[in-house]
Amino acid sequence: ETADLVSATQTLLNALSIIPDSQETVDGLELIATADLKILSSICMSVMQQFTDMERVKEKERVVPYIRSIARRNVDVGRELIQADGRAALKSLQIALQLDPKNPDAASLFGAAEDAILEEQAAAEEAEKRGKIDEAQKEVAGLQEKRAEFLEEIEEEKVGRKYTRTEGDDDDDDELTDEQEAKLQSIDFLIAE
Q1: What whole-number distance in Å separates Cα of residue 95 and Cα of residue 70?
Q2: 85's torsion region: left (phi>0), alpha (psi -120 to 50) or beta?
Q3: Mapping DSSP to helix (H, G, I), strand (E, B) and coil, where does residue 168 land?
Q4: 118-131 as b/e: b if 16+ CB within 10 A
Q5: Of 52, 67, 94, 129, which is most buried with the most CB atoms under 10 A?
Q6: How far is CA 8 from the centre of its chain?
Q7: What is the pLDDT of residues 77-86, one digit of tens each?
């Protein structure tokens, strides 16, 4: 399909160079204008390069409306894409400006597309930050739960020692052992991070 469009466009452009006043050729170019916009845009850029010399002014005047219509289609696509995909909108608007540098709509929407890209980047960064915060909060909650379980184990050990204690034992049940203290400190350190 792409090769057919390119071939048809080149044939019509050759016909236009032979018969510059041919309305049928212009109609054929307009018919092709309903095809895929990316293909048409690249064809138009090629056409514009062909008509840079001043000897072909009449042909150029006939093709310029066709090229401008493709530029307008790129502007319309860019306008539709601004809210959904700023990068695609910007690309479409850049193509429109390459085809028709004086297109006021493309120029005015260009800044909106750049703003949309910045908003998309900010939203992505914010989502990434939220994800990291959620992950950290889950990790802290898990550590706090682990700390609570460990403190419960300590209390169970104290109760167990209280029932198995004999009369001569020290009365330091409320103090933590060095091992328990070290484990609590390591959990508290991880929570603080």
Answers
A1: 9
A2: beta
A3: coil
A4: eeeeeeeeeeeeee
A5: 67
A6: 36
A7: 889 988 888 8
